[in-house]
């Protein structure tokens, strides 16, 4: 099991790097995950993003600055607290991210084309369970 998880994680890291470069050639692989989180969860504070990813404020600030410099995110005033900002994906960022995500989903469909639907559903269920336990 350990070997298979190691192979899976190595491939996932490589895939993240490829997807990041497809969004923008200068996008760091780690910052791709920020776009995923913002797309799924909507606008969020930098501190909440840092907590979610388990990184420090300095690391998060650097990644957000890079995303902002590439025009993929913006900071808006937080209506609940004028001292804070909410980070959101720009229109260009969303378009680039969606294009890459849709291409990745099409790859998954091709890779699992010869699997039976029950097997795919079971894999998804087990991965979800693994992720939930890892976060607990």
Overall spatial form: globular
* Proportion of strand residues: 5-15%
H/E element order: HHHHEEHH
- Cross-sheet strand order for the largest sheet: 1-2
Q: Please give the alpha-carbon distance between the first and last residues.
A: 20 Å
Layout of helices and strands, plus pairs?
Layout: H1 2-23, H2 29-41, H3 46-53, H4 57-69, E1 73-78, E2 81-89, H5 91-111, H6 117-135
Antiparallel strand pairs: 1-2
Helix pairs in contact: 1-2, 3-4
3D architecture notes:
Strands 1-2 form a two-stranded antiparallel sheet. It is built from six helices and two strands. It has 136 residues and is mainly alpha-helical. The chain has helices at 2-23, 29-41, 46-53, 57-69, 91-111, 117-135; strands spanning 73-78, 81-89. Helix 1 packs across helix 2 (29-41) and helix 3 crosses helix 4 (57-69). It is 71% helix and 11% strand. The mean pLDDT is 92.
Quick rundown:
It is built from six helices and two strands, in the order H-H-H-H-E-E-H-H. The chain is mainly alpha-helical and 136 residues long. The longest helix is centred in the first third of the chain and has 22 residues, at 2-23.
Main attributes?
136 residues, mainly alpha, two-stranded antiparallel ribbon, 6 helices, globular
């Amino acid at each position: 099991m350990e070997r298979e998880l190691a192979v899976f994680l190595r491939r996932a890291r490589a895939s993240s790097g490829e997807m990041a470069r497809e969004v923008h050639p200068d996008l760091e692989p780690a910052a791709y995950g920020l776009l995923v989180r913002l797309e799924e969860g909507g606008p969020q504070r930098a501190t909440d993003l840092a907590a979610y990813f388990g990184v420090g404020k300095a690391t998060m600030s650097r990644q957000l600055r890079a995303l902002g410099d590439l025009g993929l995110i913006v900071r808006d005033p937080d209506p609940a607290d004028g001292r804070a900002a909410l980070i959101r994906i720009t229109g260009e960022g969303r378009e680039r991210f969606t294009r890459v995500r849709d291409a990745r989903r099409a790859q998954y469909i091709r890779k699992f084309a010869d699997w039976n639907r029950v097997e795919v559903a079971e894999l998804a269920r087990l991965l979800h369970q693994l992720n939930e336990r890892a976060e607990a």
